[in-house]
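Note to self: the last two entries modelled the partners one at a time, which told us nothing about the interface. This time every component goes in together.
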Amino acid sequence: MSDSVAGSLAAEKNFYQEKTHKGILAWLLSTDHKRIGIMYLFSMLTFFLIAVFLGFLMRLEMLTPGETVMGAHTYNSIFTLHGVLMIFLFIIPGIPAAFGNFMLPLQIGARDVAFPRLNLLSYWFYLTGAILALLSLFTGPGPADTGWTFYAPYSLRTGTNVALAVMAAFILGFSSILTGLNFITTMHRLRAPGMSFFKMPLFCWSLYATGWIQILATPILGITLALVLMERWLGIGVFDPVKGGDPVLYQHLFWIYSHPAVYIMILPAMGILSDIIPTFARRTIFGYKAIAFSSLAIAFVGYLVWGHHMFTSGISDTSRMAFSFLTFLVAIPSAIKVFNWLATLYKGSIDVTPPFLYGISFIILFSIGGLTGLILGALATDIHVHDTYFVVAHFHYVMFGGTGFVFFAALHYWGPKMFGRMFNSKVSYIAWGFLFVGFNMLYFTMFVLGYMGMPRRYYDFLPEFHSLHVVATVGSWILIIGIIIMFVNLYRGFRYGPRATMNPWGGTTLEWKVPTPPPLENFDKIPEVKHEPYYHPRNQEERQ
Amino acid sequence: MSGASPTTGAVDSVFIFIVAISLFFLVLITFLMIYFIIKYNKKRHAKAEDIHGNTTLEIIWTVIPTIIVLFMFYFGWKGFEFIRNAPEDSMEVSVTARMWSWLFEYPNGVETDTLYVPVNTPIKLLLNSQDVIHSFYVPAFRIKEDAVPGLQNYLWFEVSKIGEYDVLCAEYCGLQHAYMLTKVKAMPQEKFEEWYEQMRQETQSTYASSDSTQMSIEASPKTSMAGSRLVQTRGCMACHSTDGSKMIGPTFQGLFGREVVLIEDEKEITITADESYIRESIMQPNKKLVKGYNPLMPSQEGQLSDEELNAIVEYLKKL
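The predicted structure of the combined assembly is written out below.
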């Protein structure tokens, strides 16, 4: 890549200093992809922290048998809300909306996304959905108590405020579709001269694969939720067996979206890791095309495996077999990625920085999540562990251990670029220690609980599960201490830390060749791309 | 195969197979990762080497995992085939799930809220639900299947050891989901036969008197006793108390002759609870709702015979 881009632009204003409006409107009306990215980031982190707190309350309730701190109704509402906030307001928009928005145009050498105003509109949809979700807590007959899956016919019967929560998810869907559409167009139309698809950083590839899922799968969620609303308001009988409907149909429709959505959550994290590893191994990625195509393969096969959420629902034995088979196939591209990341460490010159440490935790935690997924994909074993803590542990390993840890890695990796200041690395390592220990204590215990037969969404438990619940709850405290240390450190760093240089990590992709923080339209002159994304000039010199 | 039921072993062996292979890969991945990070640390290895890829390696680590997961799929499916196909000579018991209890119906008409079974006899359960989705789960037998309203699902097991085994509801079904528990009680064959016959006689004798006139029903203390048992086995007590305390539904205490405020077609009406009101509330519970309660109760239409309905009404009169 052209180093001339780096230019001596110190005099140029950064994007924080360029304002179109005053006060908060400078943010809410800005179409700058960087401002929108940061708005998403702060909104999402707010909901993430609320949802963490709800998770903390759930674990506290499970500390002792019977009532500990709340009644059953409150508990049911809290786990519903924990799921809705984490899934719809944090992890689905998650990496694409925050880091994707900020980094994608920088990484491909563009001045903004293809449709900047549409981008702002999708943030407003996000905000509207979020406000509705919060309203559902304080208005009407109280927060929904259905679980984040809104399974019919329970969701049609309960007296709680399901309609508003469903509305919220419906509107959030539009935000997701528009973001996907925007990113795909951006990658097709706005790549800098010389940047072919195969010269894009792998984070872009993962956003590309994710974009297609967002566009093609999200409408099905919209249709499903619209049907739930019509059923509740107009009494049409699509899902309610009393009116001749089919509750299993609801599960099909719900998971046709929500399983691909799992890949919306994980693919961008895999993309970030594919950027972080070559940066800190100081060498090019191993198997660029294998990683890029495995993203597409996951996005494609991911559409066809939804039935594995329904192995006990009464679908035919033939469909159970077919879905089990396809589920095993989707495991392969993930395995390929893991092996390529490992191979990228080989003969590197590894610098264990905080972003690297948080990033590679993904490999272990995601592997545990993925391998236990095989137990859930196999028919015989799924029948036993379905709807138990085993499933809860599995998806927390994938979602939190995978996406969550990479999200933290990205905060450390790109945060200095976004905010212009550095955090304290030592404190980051300490926070990581708490996070890693607490995480495994909390969720690994759940695998054991699940195999012993502890069902999920239980307000109470049989005596034999008590001691393990205590272990998990103590784990949750350690985890939360880690989260607090990490965020306090990042906040202090990004607010008061020493100024970050243009390229503090020695990154090779284009975002490291613009000033920190970047100017309003990123590039003074659109760069011309000559090399692969993970080109370390030093390695070439030494070879000669 | 060992374990509480043959299904236990069928599931556990697949589990052990997958866990063993997974553990191998997890250890391999973790070891390689840590080894590379130490060996190729910048302190020891200042010069990185760009290796763009290796097609042979890519093929190896695509093909080997594919073969392995196909084996896992195959064993998972084989195990499933076993736990899915009940032996022909299984004893069939109907299971009705509803918020938040279970009802078991034996071929001879006996109804219970706990599942009594003979050991070493395959039992096939036919699952149904009266309201929302529930899931019948016995961790000790490693079996689970949803009870879906409007759909008949099934599962089977065969208890190998005398004892009691927990039954849990595994599909979230509302407020008392965590308390939708019962037990499988496995007895020796002869003891079961004895119990089964005794229960049959009790069930028959209760309604034997109801062949006569309406008058005699009202007079019969046996009828109200049958009502008391029905209220237990049919799960009424999950939502209605008999001591005046407010639960999911209104209390049964002093119901007869009480003034109740009802909502019918969004209008408030006040009536005095009489026999016809109670009958209607059991058969069409959501037509008139007691003010302040949600329309959660499933209709008992087709679930209760005339005799059974009479017995429940008699019992409620006395509370």
